[in-house]
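user: can you give me the structure for this one chain? tokens are fine.
assistant: on it. calling the predictor now.
[tool input]
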Amino acid sequence: MEINTLLARAGTGFDPTTGAISMPVYQCATFAHPALGQSTGFDYSRSANPTRSALESTFAAIEGGAGASAFASGLAAIDAVLRLFAPGDKIVVTEDIYGGSVRLFEQFHKVCGIEPLFVDTTDLLATEKLLALDGVKAIFIEVPTNPLLKVADVSALAAIAKRHDRLVIVDNTFLTPVFFRPFEYGADITVYSATKYIGGHNDVVAGLAVAKDKKIAERIAYVQNATGAILGPQDSWLILRGLKTLALRLKVQESNAKIIADYLLGHKNVRKVYYPGIEGTQSHRNLRCTASGYGAMLAFEVDDFSRVERVLSGLKIISFAESLGGVESLITFPSRQTHADIDEETRERLGINDRLLRLSVGIESINDLLADLAGVLD
């Protein structure tokens, strides 16, 4: 089946007892055994729950993987993947990734002996030098990056990684399987903050990790069970519901984002616009041959710090709030919010300065969104 059909039927056909079209919420902690030595396949909801299992098998099929595990957040999913590695291992990491992921690498796994090697993964030569180092086990790529929307050439990086026998991990939160399918371009593991586009309604926090190889998928599932950072049944149902409209939402959101990016590019009070759909940019060149869309996230730099507060306090439709990917448009100030844990010198070097704003474009009328931005930028 094609992806749009898989999405529309997310959770359908998983309850043969009643024939329920919507997968029921199995709100229970434990399950009765038919007899000694027998099991229904479900024993305790930390290990498996029918609603979560429906989500996991559905998403594995959507992604084209051997297995998926659903977690309590995107960071919990990344944490589980990082637990595949051992003290002394090194992981090459995209340098301008989500601040929470940086914190996870630097303040938790690094102290346990797993060393992150941060690099601009759009620079293939610099990345290959690190991948060739002794002790490197994997590369972690965020595509596009958060918040500067840089797009690395995943296919080229995967080819380099395979030459050196390294795993390829891709955080595909911004594009989702609708626009980009990392396994088709050499990835071994994909991770998602399902809170974002996959859930799509800003009403649930969740994460997903998918592996192409069955043994890796089983190992991630083992970590999930052992550490217990599971997604509950009600939240699993909400993610299944979100999947059904994912492709439809993204179509409108991307259309709005393209128009807003063009508007911002021509605005006298905007210095820079970051959006992979802008033709002529390296991000656009790297994405156009592999992806079917450019997403609905963009960032822009205003001319002066004083304008930032006026924008954030003056918007009427676009909400000043963290997170992204929901049907409502949200704007964020990365240097004070999502990336505040990164030291100022590193933020400035990367371009995450005190004039940069990140915009998650929703499904509202494009005319209303443009009028809202004009009201605070003009």
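assistant: here you go. The longest helix spans residues 246-265. The domain at 3-244 is CATH 3.40.640.10 (Aspartate Aminotransferase; domain 2).
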